[in-house]
Specification:
heterodimer, A: 344 residues, alpha/beta, 8-stranded mixed beta sheet, 4-stranded antiparallel beta sheet, 12 strands, 25% strand, B: 324 residues, Rossmann fold, 12 helices, binds adenosine-5'-triphosphate, binds iron/sulfur cluster, binds magnesium ion
């Protein structure tokens, strides 16, 4: 599958009082056309920073210290049309990229709607800012498209269209935001924790909406979540992020059935399912590293039961362990042994 | 299981909101034996935290009574009241909000020890603080004594909160899990720690969470209570509630939960709700509060009569007209 986004050696740092926060360290991966890629990992591992880096919405304390992000637009018939280096985009081009090519729904999205504007105004303003369907005789077309998108996310347009954000529940607002992000027909949608802080039944509804949208519309999805079950439910591929790096990436079934990185194994084993036995659950010792003073070698080594001298000395890079499955661990072949070690 | 430690008798709590009264907790009766692990689950706003706070004595009941070791907490004498206050501790699971940022860990834990006279003298206090840090897996304890909360990770801060709650030798801990505050890798070790407290010291736990799989794991030999709009819909042995849910709401919840296993989660049978709208507490549906959404809705009786919580199969109590 052709990539629509190729991230290479991307490095992002924050300036903090204590020093440089090395939030994303030389990360490389592709997002393929039409796929759903999940980024999973613990709090503070750099997932949001990666998303913000792709849409170039990092706060002013952040600096992109290196790398490239190449975006490819495809025609309706699937022909590659043009390539853009996102990191060099400026002003109008960047704004266009952000909505018309790649839209992001943020982690704190529930407060993202302007409380004094009706939902209809949010659609109108977004369209106007991007000169989309905003010519003199296009009002009806815009309304129709917006209301259509609202029904696509299972909202009743008649009820929602004239409503103010506070009149809607958290789940409804989240769906309005998803509909809004799709207004300019982006090829790539980034969702940061789309279901966190929502109720089980509302989460289920959002997941079903996303699944439906993917079968109806042609876009790729990157979603960021610390919730593994969301990845298991929605993703085609999964990437595990640890201390600012992707340490494992592969097809969703491979990652869950046959993970090779000790961290991924630990993460999956730490999440109970409704049918798992009590004894199957384990926890990863220790806590995530300080991104200002990172450990030497493999950043997971202080917590890793398999760590040896090599691990402490040198950081492993992602290598192919089988087709389409990449792991950054010196001892990936022994990874199964980690299970026993976590058992205690 | 031991003697009843905490008993709720028809406990109701109302709040006045916008000149209207809402029932956040509506007629809950429940007995928690000594040393039990009980998990309360349910959607946001169903009254879990309100229930926990009333049990901890941080919030008064509007009707009904709460008994601690058989004594009504609202009318108990001073000495009993003191025992109850120390006996039931609530641990706020938000590690960012609950610890005083300008106090060293040592002081955070030493203060209640000294204040309640559990230790006498500097040396004994220090020793007990060390012991408590070891109990919550902050080892070696000397590494933590002089640290400030901001120098600890979220998981470590939660352990400090637990250590602080343990200073007064409680018999019951209420742990309210703020939505997904904790990382998965740390969550299990925290729960394992609570499990050990129960096994080794007989400390009972009320664990409040949205996560049914986590509730089953943690309660394992204890119980799960499922709340809906202020009422208990179902309560029973943890494994039975998950394996044999009897209330339609519990069934819907279990069928809706995504699971961290792509094979299972993608092949799960879904039960659809009749409506996605969550009723407002300001306009609670008549009869069974779940009736407008219930997939098993059986007409008039559900609309008109509040189903009482009564004995059903699998050792559970269920509040549904259709469950015999
Ligand atoms: N504005 C900022 N200034 C300094 N450091 C920051 C800033 N934003 C984030 N960080 C740090 O960068 C690291 C990565 O943060 P990021 O928000 O990307 O993590 P995350 O994986 O999205 O975590 P979560 O799951 O909690 O949302 C963290 O250590 C965080 O403390
Ligand atoms: N002090 C208060 N004043 C007014 N209403 C309140 C107050 N505390 C709680 N409520 C209301 O009571 C209901 C129950 O709240 P509670 O916090 O117990 O729910 P919960 O089950 O803990 O939810 P969550 O899972 O979101 O923590 C909610 O509708 C809430 O808005
Ligand atoms: S490289 Fe070494 S320390 Fe890192 S995960 Fe692999 S075995 Fe563990
Ligand atoms: Mg984030
Ligand atoms: Mg609560």
């Amino acid at each position: 599958m052709e990539p629509i986004l190729s991230v290479r050696d991307l490095t992002i740092e924050y300036a903090a009082r204590r020093g440089k926060v090395r939030a994303i360290r030389s990360v490389s991966f592709d997002v393929r056309r039409g796929e759903a890629l999940a980024l999973i990992g613990e709090s503070g591992s750099g997932k949001t920073t990666l998303g913000l880096g792709i849409v170039q919405l990092l706060p002013s304390t952040a600096r992109i210290a290196g790398g490239s992000i190449v975006y490819r637009r495809y025609s309706d018939t699937g022909q590659p049309m043009r390539e853009t280096e996102v990191l060099t985009l400026k002003d109008a081009d960047l704004r266009r990229f952000r909505w018309a090519e790649c839209a992001m729904v943020f982690q704190s999205a529930l407060n993202a709607l302007n409380p004094v504007l009706r939902i209809s105004d949010h659609f109108a303003d977004t369209a106007k800012a991007h000169r989309y369907l905003s010519g003199p005789r296009q009002g009806a077309a815009l309304t129709e498209r917006s209301r259509h998108l609202l029904s696509r996310v299972r909202l009743d347009p008649d009820r929602v269209w004239r409503a103010f954000p506070h009149e809607l529940s958290g789940g409804m607002r989240q769906r309005v935001l998803i509909a809004l992000s799709l207004l300019l027909e982006p090829q790539l949608l980034i969702l940061d924790e789309p279901t966190t802080a929502l109720d089980i039944l509302t989460q289920r509804n959002i997941m079903d909406v996303l699944k439906e949208l993917r079968t109806q519309l042609d876009f790729s999805l990157v979603f960021i979540s610390h919730d593994l079950s969301l990845a298991a439910e929605l993703a085609d591929r999964v990437a595990t992020v640890y201390a600012g790096k992707i340490v494992e990436i592969g097809e969703v079934y491979t990652i869950f059935r046959n993970p090779h990185h000790p961290y991924t194994i630990g993460l999956i084993k730490a999440v109970p399912t409704l049918t798992s036995d009590k004894s199957e659950l384990t926890s990863i010792p220790g806590s995530p590293p300080d991104l200002i003073e990172l450990p030497s070698g493999c950043k997971f080594h202080p917590r890793c039961p398999l760590a040896d001298d090599h691990c402490r000395r040198e950081e492993p890079e992602l290598i192919d362990v089988e087709s389409g499955h990449r792991v950054a661990c010196w001892r990936w072949q022994d990874a199964r042994a980690v299970l026993k070690a976590y058992q205690v | 299981m031991g003697e009843p430690l905490i008993t709720l008798e028809h406990v109701t709590r109302t709040f006045d909101v916008k000149r209207q009264t809402i029932k956040a907790v509506d007629d809950i009766s429940l007995t928690i034996p000594e040393g039990e692990v009980l998990c309360l689950v349910g959607e946001s706003g169903c009254g879990k935290t309100t229930t926990g706070k009333m049990i901890a004595g941080l919030l008064a009941t509007s009707a009904g009574r709460i008994l601690y070791r058989g004594q009504d907490i609202a009318t108990m004498n001073r000495a009993d009241r003191r025992r109850y206050r120390l006996g039931v501790q609530m641990v706020h699971q938000d590690p960012y909000a609950s610890l005083n940022p300008v106090q060293m860990i040592y002081n955070i834990i030493a203060a209640p020890l000294q204040h309640h006279g559990f230790t006498r003298g500097e040396a004994a206090t220090r020793e007990r603080v060390r012991e408590l840090l070891t109990t919550v897996d902050l080892t070696p304890p000397d590494d933590y004594l002089e640290k400030y909360p901001h120098q600890l990770s979220g998981g470590q801060r939660q352990r400090v909160s637990v250590a602080r709650a343990l200073t007064v030798r409680p018999s019951f801990i209420i742990a309210d899990e703020a939505v997904s505050m904790v990382d998965v890798s740390i969550r299990i070790s925290l729960l394992k720690m609570f499990g050990r407290l129960k096994d080794e010291m007989g400390v009972g736990v009320l664990f409040i969470t949205h996560d049914l799989a986590l509730a089953k794991y943690f309660a394992w030999e204890g119980r799960i209570g499922v709340m809906y709009l202020g009422r208990l819909a179902e309560i029973g042995p943890a494994q039975q509630v998950v394996a044999h849910p009897q209330h339609p709401y519990t069934q819907v919840l279990l069928s809706a939960i995504p699971e961290a296993d792509p094979d299972r989660t993608r092949s799960k049978q879904r039960i659809e709700l009749r409506s996605m709208d969550v009723p407002s507490l300001l306009r609670l549906p008549s009869g069974c509060a779940f009736h407008p959404r219930c997939p098993a809705f059986a007409g008039e009786i559900c609309e008109k009569v509040v189903p009482p919580l009564k004995k059903a199969g699998w050792g559970s109590d269920v509040a549904c007209h259709l469950v015999k």
